[in-house]
TrEMBL record:
Its main location: cytoplasm. InterPro entries: ExoRNase_PH_dom1, ExoRNase_PH_dom2, ExoRNase_PH_dom2_sf, PNPase/RNase_PH_dom_sf, Ribosomal_Su5_D2-typ_SF, RNase_PH. It comes from Pteruthius melanotis. One of its GO terms (biological process) is nuclear mRNA surveillance. This is Exosome complex component RRP46. Belongs to the RNase PH family. The gene is Exosc5. Residues 2-102, 106-170 form the Exoribonuclease phosphorolytic domain.
């Protein structure tokens, strides 16, 4: 369970398990991401976020080590007070890490809200997101702060997007430190 501020997401990972023939991939593990809203059934918004989350996870999971298997990641939204996609990304990475799956790198999600006056806010609340001119979420890898995924809602210039990315890459270091300390606490290896 990961919760920056008042947004919290519970993650569960199942597999690697035997894949259904229809979903089996001969050369790697088939990865499925299911995003469950706090109430009701998943809709268009959840489906598009599932795709972004799956693409990000597939970029780091070394699925070739588990061909013909299925890995299912279920993310349950417990509360959404803003920055939901980045919270889902962080919960997904922690779940992969916790399951001991082989990963090429860790990743984290950072959301930036671009205010009407051009100010950049990190981890915006739902209210700050409503007032923003644009909301940008990045998935950033621990190796060389590479961008694995970028999602933009609203309008911003290329220059503003680059400024948001730079801020997100700096913020990513803090998230990776959090991962390290929580893994250390859990396994008492530090």
């Amino acid at each position: 369970s990961v919760s920056p501020g008042d947004t919290s997401v519970l993650a569960g990972l199942y597999g690697p398990a035997e894949a259904k023939l229809s979903k089996e991939l001969p050369d790697r593990a088939a990865l499925e991401v299911l995003l469950r809203p706090k109430v009701g059934l998943p809709g268009v918004m959840e489906r598009s976020r599932e795709q972004l989350l799956r693409q990000t996870c597939e970029a780091v999971v070394l699925g070739v080590l588990h061909p013909r298997t299925a890995i299912t990641l279920v993310l349950q939204v417990l509360s959404d007070a803003g920055s939901l996609l980045s919270c889902c990304l962080n919960a997904a990475c922690m779940a992969l890490l916790d399951a001991g799956l082989p990963l090429a790198a860790l990743f984290c999600g950072v959301t930036c809200a671009l205010q009407p006056d051009g100010t950049i806010l990190l981890d915006p609340t739902a209210r700050q997101e409503q007032e923003a001119r644009a909301i940008l979420t990045f998935a950033i890898a621990s190796s060389e702060r590479k961008v694995l995924m970028a999602n933009t809602k609203g309008s911003c210039s290329v220059e503003e997007m680059q400024q948001c990315l730079a801020a997100a890459q700096r913020a990513a270091d803090t998230v990776f430190q959090f991962y390290r300390s929580s893994v250390c606490r859990r396994y008492s290896k530090c």
